[in-house]
Amino acid sequence: MAALTPISRKPMSVVLPAVAIAGGFLGMFVGAGQGSVLLGILIGAALMAGLAWVYMNVLDNESVARWITILGLGGLGLLFAGVTGLIVGLLAGWFFAFFIFWLYEGRYRQKLLPYMTGQQVFWHYTFRVICGAIFVFLITPILVVLPLSFNAQDFFTFTPEMLRLDPEGYSLKHYRDFFTNNEWQRSFKNSLIIAPIATFISVSLGTLAAIGLSQSHVPGRRAIMGILISPMIVPLIISATGMFFFYSDIGRFLEGTLGMDKNFVGYVKVILAHAVLGIPFVIITVTATLVGFDQSLTRAAANMGAGPVRTFFKIQMPLILPGVISGGLFAFITSFDEVVVVLFVGSASQKTLPWQMFTGLREQISPTILAVATILVVISIALLTTVELLRRRSERLRGLSPA
Question: What is the pTM of this model?
Answer without folding.
Answer: 0.74
